[in-house]
Amino acid sequence: MIRNKNFGYMLILVAMILCTGITHAQAPVQEKPNILLIIADDLGYTDLGVYGSSFYETPNLDRLARDGVIFTDGYANCPVCSPSRASIQTGKYPVKTGVTDWIKGRKAYKGTTPNDRWIVPDTDYELKLEETTIAEALKPNGYSTAFIGKWHLGETEEFWPEFQGYNINIAGWSKGSPNKSGDANGYFSPYGNPRLKDGPVGEHLPDRLTSETISILQNRDNSKPFFVCLSYYSVHGPLMAKEKDIDDYRDKREIMGITQDEEFLKDQEWMKAASGNPKEYKERIKQANPTYAAMVRSLDENVGRIISYLKENGEYNHTLIVFISDNGGLSTKEGSPTSNLPLSKGKGWTYEGGIRVPFFIKQPDQTRGIVSHVPITGADIFPTLLQYAGVKNTYSDIDGMDLSLILNGQNPEDPRPLFFHYPHYGNQGGNPASAVRYGDLKLIHDLELDAYELYDLENDISEKNNLIEELPEKAEMMKLMLSNWLDKNYDRELKPNPEWTEIDKTLETTN
């Protein structure tokens, strides 16, 4: 039965019905499953065909999703990258790791501006070594561990993957995007990355990370299961891709008759209310950027290469594969390369476009695809991987939930609250904010204005109809839920900015 809550359900189900199974070589006999965790960067909720995109083409990711469990209500734990990545690695909410903003954060680079009503809290600049990562939990239990790609959880090397439980670290260091300074050329070699040797001039970074991953799998000790965290830099800026792919999408854009006039919203109320110059913002409402589309294609092709390798070597049916993005797509500033519609806003915001992401899991020997509407978060990955690896979960302070029962079609009887706290001014126009989702209701607390919004996501996925006055009892219950959670877990406060210059602001936003 199709629900009306989310865009793209029909596409997902029709695609799964059409999908056919393929028989491959038998996996080697192994007591524990292999685990492949794939993390995309800044990939928006509707950036995959299986989640509703008609402009981007993602046949490999769509096929992988259909083989597994597609979560329509999967969330990153923060609307920016580093906090979400810390949550994935530890199973904890960002407030517990201390990493609540991208490292080092807007405050470190821009300071507190006169447009900021509040001096926001500091964020930690590293994932502390006393935290237990997935790799540190799996490694003593027989797993060989490797990290490939973006880390962005420590400014100095003592906090990089090789000191956080990973036997191998390739390309993981301080930066959160491909290096494009000096002689370094971003997504093309030379990379200027101390954990990745340069390749031939012009070599493409996603291709290289995939080749490195396949090489690790080829040369590993086959008597041990592997845990590989493949963390692509794609599709984070700078916007760079192969020219042929860009040309293909320029042609597609022309064939579809897409014009600049229908791509963006400008002069919106939220732009006037946001910290900074309103002219810096534009909200993309149509997916049409050829370079971004080419970057999505490259991500898809390279995931396809990994899956092909696993199938050809009999490993696919013996491997647990998790795919997630670290936050929503970039849609309101910095070029606004993608649209998350029907979700509101994007990266840097606690609206759905900033935190709801493509999220799916393929179990070992899974024989049919499933669509799940249970809300989950990136923090759930840690306990879920432990369960499949047969590792006893002795970590009492984690916030994630083991998803194994949900993955096998058993839905929990009662909802659990999901919490989000981003007490920072984002680069994309969003105010410091907190949020809680409970069942189908979501409460957002704008910390800049001390204003609340309440949405029924079952009937209003675009967060257009604020029910804060219509459902006062529900609103008060969720306010208390959110404040109690913060009182228990976070002690850093916003402080009044004595240099703040009041400008005309409004609570009305165009969502």
UniProtKB/TrEMBL annotation:
Record-annotated Sulfatase N-terminal domain positions: 33-391
Which InterPro entries does the UniProt record give?
Answer: Alkaline_phosphatase_core_sf, Sulfatase, Sulfatase_CS, Sulfatase_N
Classification via SUPFAM superfamilies: Alkaline phosphatase-like (SSF53649)
Query: Which Gene Ontology terms cover its molecular function?
Result: arylsulfatase activity; metal ion binding
The entry's family comment says: Belongs to the sulfatase family.
Q: Which cofactor does it need?
A: Ca(2+)
Q: Which Pfam families match?
A: Sulfatase
Q: What is the protein name for this chain?
A: Sulfatase
Query: Would the keyword Calcium be found if you checked this record's keyword annotation?
Result: yes
Instruction: Please name the PROSITE patterns in this protein's record.
Output: SULFATASE_2
| Keywords for this protein | Calcium, Hydrolase, Metal-binding, Signal
Query: May I ask which residue range the UniProt record assigns to the signal sequence?
Result: 1-25
Asked if the record carries the keyword Electron transport, the reply is no
